[in-house]
Amino acid sequence: MKSIKWGILTCLLLLFAGCATQPEKLPVSGENEKVQEEQNGDSKVDEKETEKMKEYAKLFEGIKKVAGDKSLLGNNPLMTQRFGADPYAMVYEDTVYIYMTGDVPEYNADGSLATNTYSKINTINVISSKDLVNWTDHGSVHAAGKQGAATWANNSWAPAATWKMIDGKPKFFLYFANSGGGIGVLTADSPTGPFTDPLGEALVSRNTPTCDSVLWLFDPAVLIDDDGSAYLYCGGGVPEGKAAHPCTARVVKLGEDMISLDGDPVMIDAPFLFEDSGINKIGDTYYYSYCSNFSVTAEGTAEYKLKNGQICYMTSNSPMGPFTYQGVVLPNPGEAFTNGGNNHHCMFEFQGEWYITYHAQTLEEKLGMSGGYRCTHIDVIDIKEDGSIGRASTTMKGVEQVGTFDPYQKTGAATMAVMSGIGTTACDETSKACGSGNMAVSEIDTGDWLCLKGVEFGDAGATKFRAVFEADADNDGVVEIRLDNLSGTVAGYVPVNAAGKEGIHEETVELLNRITGTHTVYFIFYGEGYQWDSWQFE
After folding, report:
1. What's the pTM?
2. Whole-number mean pLDDT of the chain?
């Protein structure tokens, strides 16, 4: 899929941006207001190379660069190349991984956009970040369906992920809902897969004790306690006449292997429950969170201080409950944005701060669509000293960058804060087979671009750039590197295939001048028919 480039994209771009519209410019900090252009002694570009640079520069003259589907001044939604709903965060080492329901556009027989029925969803999108602003696309896990890991399941909704040391090695577990009929589990040796199905059937089904009466046996969440014991939470739905106390949420202890049950599920009595289990342990307290239903009465609002479709939380001194209702932690996205719909969340801690990830319909609104297709946001949440949780806001600004981005590490090209036009695709055999893993930037056209924020080059600076492309021998594509905004200083040009090589190959270029300090780095594309796998500054 090309940045959700369907037949309507051309008119949408004209509607929202205009073909010659320049995107918003990021403010440039004082010490980074200009690149070290006066340091001509640092430049290693000889006269012959200078002529090439002039030729490359001419290619980019007059290129129309359209604003992306995400503001340069904000950090939500996290990605715009695909939709992604029901986000779940897993922290592993120094990285946050977000797993999302793979919303896919559905169309009517006449080609018009249909309302999302969720029936086509059988993949789980994965992205990761070390700073919560620049996100690496790891593709879409082929979770369910005939081509998926769990061939017994038709759908893969609302993933939950965790990891555990087993036999001295980290093992990763990805729980998902087969629509509303049960919970499956996939395992892997890496956060991004390949994932396999260890059971060949559901882990939790309607045959599981106490679960036959659960209307929606879906929306899992998982907790590994301090002693290594693990617990799975799921369920939802509102039986007729029981809006105030649906009693359709369940918690069950998992076996040591994380793919079996250790006991029978226990009911959680969550007031005005709708769906969307969440679980956290903060200090010695267990926090169960969920989405309220859409039948909240005036009496319910008065008693519990909640409204329709909000994220609420309860607390307990035991992972199995009973839980005591406390309050609301996140309003329905419709209170801040045009569209609301269902609400789904996950609270997580990263680098000493607490965050909440949730979905909204801001991307489809930007694209001029209306079908209930969701995208993922992150905002800050306040855990107070007394253990209570302050109410978070749903914003387009999102969160501040955690630290800076290291340009000297080999980086997958499908890493970005903001982009316009490009798509991503699997770039090795393993990823192509299972859907997730290493991804390349693809579906490139002249004028497409992407950028990374807060890239820290340090005082020594960078003078060289390496890139790995996949292209035909005669491909004449070029990547332009600019700093701080789309019309900022040109740092260099990278030919896609200077030596006329076939297939995957590396290109190394000298930068026009040494780059120091911290910058937003833009990669602007000329040409088409090539893929970009990875890059690294030196």
Report:
1. 0.93
2. 92
